[in-house]
Amino acid sequence: MLSQLSEWFWQERLWFPEGLGWADLEDRDGRVYAKAKDLWVALPIALLFLIIRQIFERTVATPLASLLGVKEKVRRNAPHNPSLESYYCKITKNPTQSSIGTLSKQTGYSDRQVQRWFRRRRNQDRPSLLKKFREASWRFTFYLLAFIAGLAALIDKPWLYDLKEMWQGFPVLTLLPSQYWYYMIELGFYGSLLFSVASDVKRKDFKEQIVHHVATILLISFSWCVNYIRAGTLIMLVHDSSDYFLESAKMFNYAGWRNACNYIFIVFAAVFIVTRLFIFPFRIIYCTWIYPVTVYKPFFGYYFFNGLLMILQCLHIFWAVLIIRIAVRFLTNNEKVDDERSDKDETDESEEEEERKVHDKKNMKKNGPVQNGHVVYNNNHSKTE
Question: What is the Cα–Cα distance from 165 to 154, expressed in whole angstroms?
């Protein structure tokens, strides 16, 4: 059954223009072509990336965090309470006001103490600042090196400058060693991201990130199998061109270097918008959507490939809205750049406020009214006295 399914899936009429097929991609006369079995190489590369990442985070990222002054916030742990812990783990991390009242009766805590317990318990589950910094520094390193390597592999290729060249001679396009390693390393890296997604920092766009990783892996794998390699290398280069700016901005943000973070983020926003909202849709997708039909009749692989590109473009628009919102807020109000996708700590400011109020009440009883956190002494005497 599996063999029949495989035979149906890899039908030539699905993946190739009329008159062409897998026989055209058989190695001959010293010319080498991409093959589906080559993709298995990405699996050990993905596992190798996971190992290298652990070593990098311990030997490079952690000392770098210390050098840049990354400081952890002091978090107060929630006291052990079996009833509240069971409710937190099994029902919800954010109880309603009515549920807080019920839990208060069960535990003997006041409503305020129950709220404080859940706030502290949620903070315990949030990733530390050092964990965020190490993850950002690892991605920054890869994206920067991948962009440099991709640029070096494509700088002398005619399809970097004239996008129509990516379809000249398709699908009989010889595989170059630089293309092979560029593909396998990129595919291995995104595979490692998918493997580590459960342990990485989870943000509000977690689902979108999963869709992005899966779409990217499918796009890279598919373009490899049917020899869309020239288009694939251009797409990977465009994506790597802005990501290292974002990761470096995160690193400076976690280190508390506000100005460096803000201005790098503005550079990232400009590069992202140019590459993802203009070059990608109006140059690359235009060339993969419009030009091939002038050479061949549309076929399933043509629609499948462009469909994956459109999924990526929808994600680009989603992220561009978040990026523009942050950039406008910074440029108009000079506010600090913050990643809206991040799940921020619930600081103990509210607790400090509560403690201040208690302190103020004591002072009021002792010394009189309190205003703006300061004692207002009795000053009702007449000026003439």
Answer: 13
pLDDT tens-digit readout, 40-65: 999 999 999 999 999 999 999 999 99
Between the CA atoms of 265, 266, 272 and 274, what dihedral angle is there, to the nearest 10 degrees? -170
Domains of the chain in sequence order: 37-67+128-333 (no CATH), 82-125 (1.10.10.60)
* Model pLDDT, residue 46: 94
Cα–Cα distance measured from residue 234 to residue 151, given in angstroms and rounded to the nearest whole number = 9
Contact 45, 104 (CB under 8 A): no
Hey, what long-range contacts does 25-28 have (CB within 8 A, 24 or more apart)?
25/171, 25/172, 25/227
Rounded Cα gap, residues 209 and 198, in angstroms: 12
Dist CA 301 CA 205 (whole Å): 29
Answer yes or no: is pLDDT of 317 > 80: yes
Instruction: Say what the pLDDT of residue 385 is.
Output: 38
Asked whether the whole model's pTM tops 0.85, one would answer no
E strand residue ranges, the chain = 370-371, 374-375
Region of 29 on the Ramachandran plot (φ > 0 left; ψ -120 to 50 alpha; else beta): left
Residue 57 exposure: Cα atoms within 13 Å on the Cβ side = 16
Question: Which neighbouring-strand residues pair with 370?
Answer: 375
DSSP 40: G
Distance CA 251, CA 21 (A): 48
